[in-house]
């Protein structure tokens, strides 16, 4: 069976981490969650890697977020047992590596996929990419940093629209809103990402580390209280009847039937 995470070193100083579950739109199950954290640790320990690129396998998805029938019950079980760790894919709540990370978004970046991208230092996307936090459609919320980081990254009104409707936006609107820094044609995305990463890797290492640490203050150090509040809200809704119905309806491919409480 193919590993769900692939690591390559396609250029001097560059590590490429690929989420490789294309048959699942690169959705994250518990095993892939752990493997991604291990991959970041491996690349962080590699002195030959100075910049990391994260992407998804295939041409349809960067990451469609949680593998809902697999990951959400796993998280719910941990929360009920009071052993929840909010860190998602090794990157959302604690810094995974001192090295800069670039998200090369090659398709849909939904839910946890967008949360991974928001935790990266740089983001570029192909013209076919789309971005969304659809968790509200299954009765939960983006508890891996999405509800906290998105309104601090793009205009608040747009973030609220995305979070409260669960509807995605395309690459052009994402660029206009400042969610990504540039758009490429699909075939040009990885070459462009590797070009940027190679440029970063060629700069003075001490300066790169210092700049990266300073840039991350607003995404980690200054957000700890907000991220903790978000996780408590996530636990509250995930352990609710709404979440039970939303997840069940998703698995059964039907519209959820929510009740007033």
TrEMBL record:
The keyword Cytoplasm does not apply. InterPro entries: ClpP/crotonase-like_dom_sf (IPR029045), Enoyl-CoA_hyd/isom_CS (IPR018376), Enoyl-CoA_hydra/iso (IPR001753), Enoyl-CoA_hydra_C (IPR014748). GO terms for molecular function: isomerase activity; lyase activity. GO terms for biological process: fatty acid beta-oxidation. It comes from the Bacteria. It holds the Pfam family ECH_1. The keyword Lyase applies. Keywords: Isomerase, Lyase. Belongs to the enoyl-CoA hydratase/isomerase family. This is Enoyl-CoA hydratase/isomerase. It comes from Alicycliphilus denitrificans (strain DSM 14773 / CIP 107495 / K601).
């Amino acid at each position: 069976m193919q590993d769900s995470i692939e690591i390559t070193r396609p250029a001097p100083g560059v590590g490429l981490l690929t989420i490789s579950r294309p048959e699942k739109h690169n959705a994250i199950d518990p095993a892939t969650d752990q493997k991604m954290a291990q991959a970041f640790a491996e690349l962080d320990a590699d002195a030959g890697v100075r910049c990391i690129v994260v992407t998804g396998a295939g041409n349809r998805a960067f990451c469609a977020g949680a593998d809902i029938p697999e990951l959400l019950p796993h998280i719910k079980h941990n929360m009920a047992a009071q052993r929840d760790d909010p860190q998602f894919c090794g990157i959302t709540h604690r810094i995974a590596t001192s090295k800069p990370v670039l998200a090369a978004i090659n398709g849909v970046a939904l839910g946890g996929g967008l949360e991974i991208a928001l935790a990266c230092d740089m983001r570029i996307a192909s013209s076919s990419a789309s971005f969304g936090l659809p968790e509200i459609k299954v009765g939960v919320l983006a508890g891996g940093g999405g509800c906290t980081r998105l309104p601090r990254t793009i205009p608040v009104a747009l973030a609220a629209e995305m979070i409260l409707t669960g509807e995605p936006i395309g690459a052009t609107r994402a660029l206009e809103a400042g969610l990504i820094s540039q758009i490429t044609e699909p075939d040009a995305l990885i070459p462009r990402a590797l070009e940027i990463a190679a440029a970063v890797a060629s700069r003075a290492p001490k300066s790169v580390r210092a700049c990266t640490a300073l840039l991350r203050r607003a995404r980690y150090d200054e957000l700890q209280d907000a991220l903790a509040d978000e996780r408590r809200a996530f636990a509250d809704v995930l352990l609710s009847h709404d979440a039970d119905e939303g997840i069940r309806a998703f698995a059964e491919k039907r519209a959820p039937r929510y009740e007033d409480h």
